[in-house]
Design goal:
The structure is a single chain. The chain is of the alpha/beta class. It has two domains: 2-205, Spore Coat Polysaccharide Biosynthesis Protein SpsA, Chain A, CATH 3.90.550; 210-393, Hexapeptide repeat proteins (UDP N-Acetylglucosamine Acyltransferase, domain 1), CATH 2.160.10.10. Helix content is 14%, strand content 32%. The chain has seven helices and 38 strands. Strands 1, 4, 5, 6, 7, 8, 9, 10 and 11 form a nine-stranded mixed β-sheet that branches. A nine-stranded mixed β-sheet has the order 12-13-16-19-22-25-28-33-36, with no helix packed on it. Strands 14-17-20-23-26-31-34-37 form an eight-stranded parallel β-sheet. A hairpin with a 2-residue loop joins strand 12 (231-233) and strand 13. The protein starts with a strand and ends in an 11-residue tail after the last strand. The model has no long low-confidence stretch (mean pLDDT 91).
Amino acid sequence: MQILILAAGESSRFWPFSEICHKSLLKVGEKTLLEQTIEGLKGHEVVLVINKKTTLSDEIVKNNNIKIILQDEPKGMADAIIKSKSIVKDEFLVIMPYYINIKEHLQKLIKTGAPAVAVKKYEEEDEKTHGIAKIEKNKIVEIREKEKFNGAENSIIGVYKLNKGIISRLEKAQNSKYTFENILNEIAKKDGLNYFELEGLPSLKYVSDLLSIKKFVYSNVKQKRKIEKTVKKNNVFIETSVILGKNVKIGNNVSIKGETYVGDNSFIGDNSLIRDSIIGENAEIGFGTEIARSIIMDNTHIHSGFVGDSIIGQNCRLGANFITGNRRIDRKTIKIEIKEGYDTELTRLGAIMGYNVKTGINTSVMPGTLIGNGSIIGSNTEVKGRVESNKLVYSKKENVEKQI
């Protein structure tokens, strides 16, 4: 089967990482999300649509089963599909570049007649990020973008089976933000549209969604890496579920639990506790650090402290006693400052930190704080909300000296 992967968007809701790369090129675990997705498509022909800012790995560029198309500007799905006209065959699948478990669903998709779309059961407020579909007599009969309407009980997710005929219709249509969705709706209203039900694909609409992809990354690594028996020696306890990369060094009195992966050449210092987290390669987790339900990317060093429900980018240096607040005192859901502001609907969310961030000693980060790439947070400073990239933030403190 020929599979078209769309990876040319702006990823604007993925700040601060969107300044670095497309969201699918973030390395979480052993490889980037895009590379993990492509791994699951072995035996199929891949057509990859990227933008001019994208830098691909040699592994992808040199793969003869991957054809690459450049979309000069991110003009939406319709334009991306039209750009692939000379390459795509009569029938092809369209998927998002972060569906790293797509291989589990391929047979169902291949068997469904084109044109068809993937749906899941509607969940409250899905219309904020999904198209909404009405189904009658085993056909989709209407689609509305970003609108819940009477009789519509399903949400559309980013998997499609198309044929070349739809490309001609896209070319004739007036290009707009929702051209692709409008054409699908025309087909649904006139002839009915095929669909397949898919549950359990990762969603990466907003940067906070990265935390939900941890379980998929862990599962991918688990299929390839050997899991050792529980280790309990020299005051070290590592549960059977934990996956350790090559040359991982572990100090005394360390406990590692749950669905945790620690990448190659990383170091876990004395008295540390790590739970249900993804730790990248060449990371250093210092003395007395607790990391819970977080993603720590490659080459990041943490001296000591607590990192909970957080995403820490590559090449960060976090000073002693770095603390993330990951829950509001009132236990309400946590908002992040992306575009107009976004309610994550999470009650646990710590810091989202870009690449090359440095913090001094005794810094603290309030729930849902975004910190831009290359910023420096000074010692004894509390930050909240959003810190733009390449900013220096510190608290002024004046010592008072008096005669005794």
